[in-house]
Structure prediction request, 414 residues.
Amino acid sequence: MVHGESFVIPTRGNSDIKNITDQVQKIVSNSKIMEGIVNISAVGSTASISTIEYEPALVEDMQDQLEKFISHTAPTRHGSTWGDENGFSHIRATFMGPSITIPVSDARPILGTWQQIIVIDHDNRPRERRVFVQVIGE
Amino acid sequence: MVHGESFVIPTRGNSDIKNITDQVQKIVSNSKIMEGIVNISAVGSTASISTIEYEPALVEDMQDQLEKFISHTAPTRHGSTWGDENGFSHIRATFMGPSITIPVSDARPILGTWQQIIVIDHDNRPRERRVFVQVIGE
Amino acid sequence: MVHGESFVIPTRGNSDIKNITDQVQKIVSNSKIMEGIVNISAVGSTASISTIEYEPALVEDMQDQLEKFISHTAPTRHGSTWGDENGFSHIRATFMGPSITIPVSDARPILGTWQQIIVIDHDNRPRERRVFVQVIGE
Prediction:
């Protein structure tokens, strides 16, 4: 059995981090799938999916670390060739990857108590970011 | 067909790296699934799953690199706000992600000769870490 | 329904980045699966799968960042213990992970307009790199 839904979430870009756990749980419920997996994918080349303990201080820590990893002011060949000032966005996204997959059991995604699902929009401007959620199982 | 099992593995924390290839292969065998995928997920917000050539020198190299990426002594807002001294653990985990998925063929996970499946427990203390293994296929 | 195929792609190593979107789309077409997921895995402990806007300037930016993250000249215990000069390759691969999974809908992998699927071969020499593509769905 396969059940897929996508949704759009507005972000501010610059590695804005949004908690999408409720949306994912809703889609898993809609699927009526009891046991299986759920794949959560950001559509596009400048966003990532991961998990975090979603509290404001840690969210800022993560953003600091992304800035330390590759600064939004770092000159890139992508920028100098195309005039796109979001080379840093692409590199953060390729490094972290576009998606995660986690188990579904008892009709719920398996997460720890302090573990939430997030989209990180690395792009350098506000976006309407599409997230695709695919549930597979029985 | 879906077959899921979880197990608990004791870790020392601080990006302790444990080889869980045997446990995953056992669960794939138990599933009787011949062709499909296996999803391996660390439950919680301070651990990651990946693969490595599991030999002691390289395991230490990986730990050095995680320390260089973000030190366990780096001050974090998470620490100063909540008194949780594991901000670095969360950031390492969010960066690397909580899970991997690999193919199953001929009733075995597809891995290279020198490629083992690992859990990395980034937390700053020993843990009993739960790993969930979900096999899907036919 | 499960459909798996693997292919081999020649790389130059040293985080050579190859666009494998066409190969993946072909295998998804061969599968006749309309809705589901596709898992793309690099076989071995020195390669990664991710997505990127595949244009030459950005590909070089990504390689620069991998070199900055851990240089191919960085001394490693893996190198000094075994004489394998590819410690950096392993660390890049473990950090980025061996695989990605993305949704399949309407018989196509879901990707953004500027998003291509890549294998990054981190090894320190040319390789014939095997990539396994597993499609699951209905």
